[in-house]
Amino acid sequence: MTATTQAGVPTLALTLGDVAGIGPEITARTLLEHDELRTICRPVVIGDAEALRRAVTGVLGRDAGLVRVVDRPADATNDPGTIEVVQDGPPLGHVPYGELSPDAGDAAARFVMRACDLARAGEVDGIVTAPLNKAAMHAGGHHWPGHTELLAHEFGVDNFSLVLSAGELYFFHLTTHVSLRDAITGVSAERTDNVLRLVGSFAGALGTPDEAIGVAGLNPHAGENRLFGDEDADVLEPAVRRATAAGINAVGPLPADALIPQAVNGKWRFVVVCYHDQGHAPFKAVYGDDGVNITVGLPVVRVSVDHGTAFDIAGTGVAREASLVLAARRAAELAPGWHQVWETARSAAAS
What PANTHER family has UniProt attached to this entry (predicted)? Predict the structure, then answer.
C-alpha cells in the first residue's frame, strides 16, 4: 500500500533545507498559514524540530507546541495549524541565522537523503525541497553541485534535468551548476540527445506528445551560420534532426533572445536551454515567486522553490513563502500521475 492510498491524498516530504537560511521560517509559514494545502496533500517535514520551533516562536511569534515530532510519515495526522516533523540527526538550534555552517550543510543534505529513503520505501509520494546552501553542504562533507545532482545520485539515475516551471511552461536545462566554460563542453551530442528524449517523454506523459519543443542556441543568434561559434551547427542541429527522426517535435536551435520571449508569450510550452543563466535569469525576472524547480528523470516527483537560502534576511520575518507553497501544490498535482512520467522517461532513456 502506498502513502497515497493510505491517506487519500499524496504524502509529501518537505525537506527543511539549510537551517541558517530562510528554510525553517518559510516552511513554518507554509504549514501554519496555508491550510488549503491539507486538502490536496499530507505534508511532513524532514528536518529538525529545534530549528522549526525557533522559527515558529522567534519569527512568527507563535507557540512552540505547534511543532510535533513523528516517527514516520504514516503517523502524521495532517491537522491544520500543526507542523509534523520527522527528526533527522542531532538538534540544530545552536546554528545561527545567516552564517555558513558545516553542521547546517551536512544536515541539509541528510534531510534530502532521508526523504529519498522514505520515497524508495513507499512512505512518501513526493519530495518538496526548501533551499540549501551549496558552500555549506560542501563544508559539511557532501560534494554535490546542488539538490538536483544529489537526488539523481540517491535514486541512481543518469538522465535527468533541472526544469523551471511556471504554469504550463517548462524550461529544461542541458547543464546547470557548472562554470560557463564547462557548460560549453557539457552541451554534448549525448547530453542533448538524452534531454530531448526526456522532454519528449515528459510531454507525452502530460498528454501532449506532439507538442513542439524549442531548443535554444548556445551562442548568440544560434551561431549565425558559424560566425559566432560552431557548437550550434555541430552539436545542436544534428541532435534536433535525430530527435525529429525519432518522432520528437524538436525545433532549433533558435536564438535564445527570440525563443524565450516567445515562450513567455505562449508560443512554446517546452523549451530546452543550454546553461544555468540562460534559463534562470529570464525565468526568475519574469516569474519570481510564481515559479518552481522540478526534477524530471527521477522515479518520484521532486519540486523545489526557485530561490536560495537568503542568509541576508534569515530570521527577520520578511521572507516570502509563496514559492514553497506553489512547490507543494505542484508536487501534489503531479504525484498521482508521476509513475507514468517516470516510466516513459525510463523507456526513452533505454531506447
Answer: 4-HYDROXYTHREONINE-4-PHOSPHATE DEHYDROGENASE, D-THREONATE 4-PHOSPHATE DEHYDROGENASE
